[in-house]
Structures are given as C-alpha cells and as structure tokens.
Specification:
It is a single chain. This protein has helices spanning about 5-10, 20-35, 80-115, 135-150, 155-160, and strands at about 40-45, 50-65, 65-75, 125, 180. The protein folds into two domains: about 5-80, 2-Layer Sandwich (Beta-Lactamase); about 110-180, no CATH class. By secondary structure, the chain is α+β, with helices and mostly antiparallel strands. The strands form two sheets. The chain has a three-stranded antiparallel sheet with strand order 1-2-3, with helices on both faces. A two-stranded antiparallel ribbon has the order 4-5. Strand 1 (about 40-45) and strand 2 form a beta hairpin.
Amino acid sequence: MTGISRQELVGFDASHFYSSQEWSFLTQQIEVAFRAGHNRYAFVLPRKDGSRLPVIISSRTLQTSGSQLGILTFTDISEQVRAEEELRAANAKLQKRQMEIEEDLRLAARIQRSLVPNAGMGEGVDVNFSQTTDFGTRLRCMRAARRRSSSISICRFWSFAFAARSSSSARTCSEMSVER
C-alpha cells in the first residue's frame, strides 16, 4: 500500500512522517478512539517515494484480560479522491461555460432589441421561465406567445423574447407571468 516495509517501520517514530499539525490531529483521533472505543476519520499515509496516500482509518479498541488492544483498518480512498477532484473540475468548467452562454444570450438579446425594437409586438411581450427545465412547458409557452404576437419569429422568440424568471417547470403558460 505504501511501499514501506514492515522492517523499516519497526522502531521508527511515526511523528517524523507528519507535520506538527497533522501529528496533533492524529494523536487527538487516537485519544477519541480509546475514549469512545472506536473512531473513523480521513487521513494520509506516507509512501516510500515521498507522496501521500489518502485513507480512511477505522479504529476499534478491545479490552482483553486487563489489557487494551487497538485494531486499525486503513482503506485506500485515492480513487475516490481522484474522482472527486475530477468532478469538481468538471463542475467548475460546466459553471464557467454556463455563465459564458448566459452572457452570450444577454448580448444577443441587447443586439436584437437595438436592431428591431418591439417588432410587431406592440409594447413587447416578455414571457418568464428561466428555471423552467421542462421542454414541453417551454414549447407551450412559445406557442402561446406566438399566438399573442404572430409576427415574432421563432429565432427571435428563443433568443430574447423570453427573459427568465419562472420558478417552476410545472407551471403552464397561462400561469407564467407575461409582461407588456
């Protein structure tokens, strides 16, 4: 698991592997295990190459014939840690891309409004459904808005006629707010 042999560990002071903060944390966890009879926590084990192996340490103490014994189980969680890091990176990338798309849509809306202000829409129709994720609901709203303003084009409709403010994907077009 760590590449350090049992012979190398026998008689070696484990505090040399860790910083003072890490050693303090480890000794606190050991004390908790002896007081409570068990403990479970995430920590790191040193490897022979100098890297660190993330593990879950499960400990249990046993009383036998007047002496106290400790059982430790180390579970390698390096794959889990790697997957969590990949997930965080993917989420950050996704959030960045979402912000870029939203900014592009706001810019497109401003440009279209400046080029064709209120084209055939009277005072303008603005159907709100930003958090509506149900495609069927969006499609019904789009059809309702087109009936209200037949000259609006589908591209123009999707690109800026709908400013998002709805809070439920279950709402119907008639329930969504329409601003004029």
